[in-house]
Amino acid sequence: MHKSRSQMIGQGLVLATTAVSVGAVALTVVGLHTQSWAGLTESPKELVDEVWQVVYQNYVDPSFNKNDWRQVRRQYLSRSYTSKEQAYGAIREMLERLEDPYTRFMEPEQFQSMRIDTSGELTGVGIQLAQDEKTKQLVVISPIEDTPAARAGILAQDVIVKINDKSTQGMDINQAVALIRGKAGTTVQLTIRRGERQAVYTLKRERIELHAVRSEVQESRLGKLGYIRLTQFNGNASADMRKAIEDLEKQQVVGYILDLRSNPGGLLQSSVEIADMWLDRGTIVSTKTRVGEAERYEARRSTLTNKPLVVLVDGGSASASEILAGALQDNQRAVLVGTKTFGKGLVQSVRELQDGSGLAVTIAKYYTPAGRNINKEGINPNVEISLTDEQREAILKNRAVGTPQDPQYARALEALSQLLKVATKEGRPAAPASGT
Q1: Out of 238, 344, 365, 406, which one is annotated catalytic?
Q2: SS3 271
Q3: How many angstroms from the chain centroid is the CA of residue 221?
Q4: pLDDT bracket for residue 284 (50, 70, 90)
Q5: Does 122-209 match 5-111 at the fold level?
Q6: What is the model's pLDDT at position 373?
Q7: 411-430 per-position pLDDT tens digit
Q8: pLDDT given at position 120
Q9: Is 319 considered catalytic here?
Q10: Residue 217: what pLDDT?
């Protein structure tokens, strides 16, 4: 089934980047749609059953992680609940049987925080969190550029072992968010493990404005280059990307470097629309539910430029970033430079429950145009170049991202030079050969 853009808008689909901004909210909403439950009786037992029903009807794994889901219902509905808090506890206990950190329950305050996120403003320290599926450790997907976390030197893949004096062992993402976030001007202490080394960071919370797109013309020996850094796929990202490309085209750049490093993902709608700006044809992404392919998103011949393109990726490039990178790589539209991406290829449905709480349920997996399921595998770049922790920390602290002092950017320039030589020789815009 092919899907139009208008059909995408308003659906309760979420890309499971696993990212939760400890500033305030999750950054994974994909056209968040919620149903109104006004008029329903707010019975604790009805709430438990409502959650059970949503999982039963939609969960991606038909075996429910080898649980007899009907027996689970009988077990939890046989209990007596005298408060919402008891129901909330039972719901979390029930969902734990799935062993899926992305199928999660959110109390009303947490759910409202999730919805607020697409406004592009946070109050916090500026990191994206994930819970490792195997170890259950809290892992930093990436620090947000120019935030307290980035300025302090916190890096992608750092493990948070303590929040203030509280161990994170057994702690879920929602609990971590509640402890780390707070009023601007207050502080939080994070104990971070990086490899064998452990360090304590004291961070002052602040109000963070999230600008998804930064672009500039860079003079080089190749001519004028368009550098675009996309830090997340929020509600403004596609419009900002369109403006950036149109402005750079007016300045007659000869090629582009698109920087998706440390981009934890966001709106599916934005990732598809942005892929459309670079592709004139081809599949962008498809999703598969437990009963087979559900949706296929195609480019609609609305490309803004066909000039050579290099995309920078790393271990902090997740979910919607991987959709975009995978679409450009599989359609041979761009060369990917950097390191393997995070590997999150799950889609969730998010809905509001009868009492204002929320539920995110994994309902599908997404696949690149070539049929790759990148969940837990990631996308390998065409040209691999890694950075040491010291290099990454120095680049962040010195705000040298996307400059010649950035080794991955320098390698991207080399790759773009090769594409431009091909374009000049053949008298056409260059597209990378498969496997370059």
Answers
A1: 344
A2: helix
A3: 34
A4: very high
A5: no
A6: 92
A7: 999 999 999 988 777 665 55
A8: 54
A9: yes
A10: 96
Name the band, by pLDDT with cuts 50, 70 and 90, for residue 5. very low
Number of DSSP helices (H) and strands (E) in the chain, helices first: 12, 22
Q: What is the dihedral of CA 301, 304, 306, 309, to 10 degrees?
A: -120
Strand blocks (E) in 322-408: 335-338, 346-352, 358-367, 383-384
CATH topology of domain 213-345+365-426: 2-enoyl-CoA Hydratase; Chain A, domain 1 (3.90.226)
**Residue written as token pair 């976390």:** 149
Please report where in the chains the tokens 């690149």 appear, as a residue: 368
Domain 122-209 has CATH 1.10.150.130: no
Supply the DSSP string of 282-345, one letter for each residue. SEEEEEEETTEEEEEEE--S--S--S-EEEEE-TT--THHHHHHHHHHHTT--EEEES------
What's the alpha-carbon Rg for the chain, to the nearest Å?
22
Q: In the Cβ-directed half-sphere of 153, how many Cα atoms lie within 13 Å?
A: 13
Active site residue 330: yes
pTM of the model: 0.74
- On whether the CB atoms of residues 130 and 141 are closer than 8 A, the answer is yes
Residue of 330, 349, 355, 365 marked catalytic: 330
Which CATH number applies to 5-111?
3.30.750.44
Q: What are phi and psi of 303, to 5 degrees?
A: -60, 145
Task: Give bridge partners of residue 203 from the DSSP assignment.
Answer: 188
Has residue 131 got a pLDDT over 50?
A: yes
**Segments making up each domain of the chain, as ranges:** 5-111, 122-209, 213-345+365-426
pLDDT in tens, 16-63: 433 344 322 222 333 333 333 333 346 899 999 999 999 999 999 999
